[in-house]
Specification:
This protein has 358 residues and is α/β, with parallel strands linked by helices. The protein folds into two domains: 13-244, 3-Layer(aba) Sandwich (Rossmann fold); 252-276 and 295-348, no CATH class. Helix content is 30%, strand content 21%. Strands 6-7-8-3-9-10-12-11 form an eight-stranded mixed β-sheet, sandwiched between helices. It has a four-stranded antiparallel β-sheet with strand order 2-1-4-5, with helices on one face. Strand 4 (78-86) and strand 5 form a beta hairpin. The protein starts with 19 loop residues before the first strand and ends in a 30-residue tail after the last strand. Bound molecules: iron/sulfur cluster. Residues 263-264, 300, 302-303, 306, 308-309, 313, 318, 330-332, 339 line the site of iron/sulfur cluster.
Length: 358
């Protein structure tokens, strides 16, 4: 593996070498009508054992970011600029043949639908054993023992009796446990989980998230958890990255972002989450909709919907800057010339301390 040439390029916040480092990532889709920019200047890092939640509405770019990391962008999408490093090794410029060995062995993947990851024609045991033997130097007997141990670790009861079962013989929650076992089988350094519990009911969802978090913490595995659900982020993530219109607009420790969001869009997201006390007050709704890729406005992309927008927001694009305990891309936090909040626009502030509790 090659190493990062300069320590100055490393994330200043992360003391240990980040497992994943994404720097100024830009993804474009060339079309007959011009180039669409799906991701623009996205940078973040994930430390060993850390869960970074990536949240946003449909079209914000969160799944696109995960797909760019694992080189599964839908054509004609391409990485036009920036770099992606896995444990110090640059991986965004690898040819497909060189990238294939990384998937599974160094980067595990968990998708929303477990049936995407499981082959209905093969037993769970066959799939686990094949995955293990593809990536690790194990005999058939050793791989079988390891498969049994993995199924036990992810909470499959009586694994020796389930090893020969097929995916359709498992419930949705049990299938997703098997997918987690598959993703962890080769002990990857990074797991990308894209809406891993969206298809599950709430009680199973909580169990699966707790399992994923515990197993990754025990192994020191970094997790990029992509979801539209702030509740999932609150339960699982250490830090949260909020995306909007293909850009990272806020990143910080999850508790800090939930209790005191710094970007007006995040404030709106938090204020729109129902609280446990179920009061009759109407939930806050962010006016307007996420812009289409072909119509991302100049300046701050959120300005048409922002209650604090002023002339500068329409002209100048804010980069991430220190805000609260993290960073936000908003002129309200300009250290040299902070934009004043507009009076009467406090309706988007979170209404309750426990707005995140589900
Ligand atoms: Fe709102 Fe301006 Fe901040 Fe954008 S930069 S979020 S428009 S205040």
């Amino acid at each position: 593996m090659s190493s990062i040439p300069s320590s100055a390029e490393r994330s200043p916040a992360a003391a240990p070498e980040p497992v994943l480092s994404v720097r100024h990532l830009r993804v474009e889709f060339p079309t007959r009508h011009g180039t669409l920019v799906a991701l623009d200047d996205v940078s973040f890092a994930i430390a060993p054992g850390e869960v970074l939640g990536v949240v946003g509405e449909s079209g914000a770019g969160k799944s696109m970011t995960g797909n760019a990391v694992i080189q599964l962008l839908e054509p004609p999408g391409r990485i036009a600029d920036g770099e992606i490093h896995l444990q110090g090794r640059r991986i965004d410029n690898l040819a497909e043949d060189d990238f294939v060995p990384l998937r599974g062995r160094h980067i595990g993947m968990i998708f929303q639908d477990p049936l995407t990851s499981l082959n209905p024609l093969f037993s769970i045991g066959d799939q686990l054993i094949e995955t293990l033997r593809t990536h690790l130097p194990l005999s058939e007997k050793q791989a079988r023992e390891r498969a049994l141990a993995l199924l036990s670790e992810v909470g499959i009861p009586a694994p020796e009796t389930r090893l020969d079962s097929y995916p359709h013989q498992f419930s949705g929650g049990m299938r997703q446990r098997v997918v987690i076992a598959l993703a962890l089988a080769a002990e990857p350094e990074l797991i990308i989980a894209d809406e891993p519990t969206t298809a599950l009911d709430v009680s199973v969802q909580a169990q699966i998230l707790a399992l994923l978090k515990r197993l990754c913490a025990e192994r020191g595995t970094a997790v990029m958890l992509v979801t539209h659900d702030m509740g999932v982020i609150a339960e699982t993530a250490d830090r949260v990255a909020v995306m909007y219109a293909g850009r990272l607009i806020e990143i910080g420790p999850v508790n800090a972002v939930i209790r005191a969001p710094q970007h007006p869009y995040t404030e709106g997201l938090m204020a729109s989450i129902p609280a446990v006390e179920h009061d009759l007050e109407r939930l806050y709704q962010i006016e307007g909709a996420m812009p289409r890729l072909a119509a991302i406005p100049p300046g701050c992309p959120f300005h048409p919907r922002c209650p604090h927008a002023q002339a500068r927001c329409e002209r100048e694009r804010p980069d991430l800057m220190p805000a609260g305990q993290g960073q936000a891309a908003c002129w309200l936090h300009d250290p040299d010339d902070p934009l004043p909040r507009r009076a009467g626009s406090e309706k988007a502030r979170p209404r309750r301390e426990n707005a995140h509790e589900r």
